[in-house]
Specification:
Blueprint: H1 3-7, E1 27-29, E2 38-39, E3 41-45, E4 50-53, E5 58-63, E6 72-77, E7 80-81, E8 85-88, E9 95-102, E10 108-113, E11 121-122, H2 146-149
Antiparallel strand pairs: 1-2, 1-8, 3-4, 4-7, 5-6, 8-9, 9-10, 10-11
């Protein structure tokens, strides 16, 4: 990728993987052969500013036979550019832009905005709350023991424990 293409990459994504608001209808395709149809975002390709929508933008792909798999003509989902997809407003069911708002308790939420949008909260998808690899519950060889972590090494009143600089 050249430096010009790298400049146009989206840094703050507003469309998330697995967006699921109204019975698996979250993004609407606004351009292309599947215009007007809705679907769930299956994958996001951030390096190319593209998204793969489940069951949409299907193309035929010729795959050569190899060890462990058969060859043939398969139907696969091709990526769409992110500008051709918009999030569906959970109240009106129409495509809308996504804004960010802070609630009174300080939490950050996504809201529907634009002409004819309801301004309602678009919840984060449940799939993003699950971790792909679980956190380890047993301390490993490189983990610091808790007694060393909780040990008091500096006394504020006497100044002991301060390194000599």
């Amino acid at each position: 990728m050249g430096w010009k293409a790298a400049q146009k990459l989206i840094h703050h994504w507003k469309i998330l993987r697995g967006d699921n608001v109204r019975a698996n209808e979250i993004v609407m395709i606004i351009r292309g052969k599947d215009k007007g149809e809705t679907g769930v975002v299956k994958r996001i390709v951030r390096s190319q500013n593209r998204v793969i929508v489940e069951g949409k933008n299907l193309v035929k792909k010729h795959i050569k036979q190899g060890q462990g798999h058969e060859g043939g003509i398969f139907t696969v989902e091709a990526p769409l550019h992110v500008s051709n997809v918009q999030v569906v407003d959970p109240v009106t069911g129409k495509p809308c832009k996504v804004g960010i708002k802070y609630l009174e308790d300080g939490s950050k939420v996504r809201v529907a905005r634009g002409v004819g949008a309801s301004g309602s909260i678009i919840p984060r998808p449940e799939i993003l709350k699950m971790r792909t690899t679980p956190r380890p519950t047993v301390a490993g060889p490189k983990d610091t023991p808790m007694d060393v972590v909780l040990e008091k090494t500096y006394d504020r009143t006497t100044g002991k424990g301060m390194p000599d600089l």
